[in-house]
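Review form for a predicted model. The reviewer records the input and the model, then writes brief findings.
Reviewer: anonymous (R2)
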Amino acid sequence: MTQTMTPHHSQEAGEQLPLLPADDVPVQLRLSQRTRRIGLAGVARARAILADQAARRRQASEEAAHITPPRAA
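Model under review:
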């Protein structure tokens, strides 16, 4: 029997994961401060885009709730 591995997120939204001590991270995976800043700026930009899209969907949904469909003849 083949079992599919699906990611399961047990952490609460917004929970901060602990960082590994710098000595435990292989050299190939260590990030410079510049790379961290660029990455965090990208994450912030993506979150802003998603928040804007959610706000637009919410607004469109609220506006559509006030519209009544025409009655069938």
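Findings: The helical segments are 33-65.
Further findings: The radius of gyration is 22 Å.
Recommendation: see findings above.
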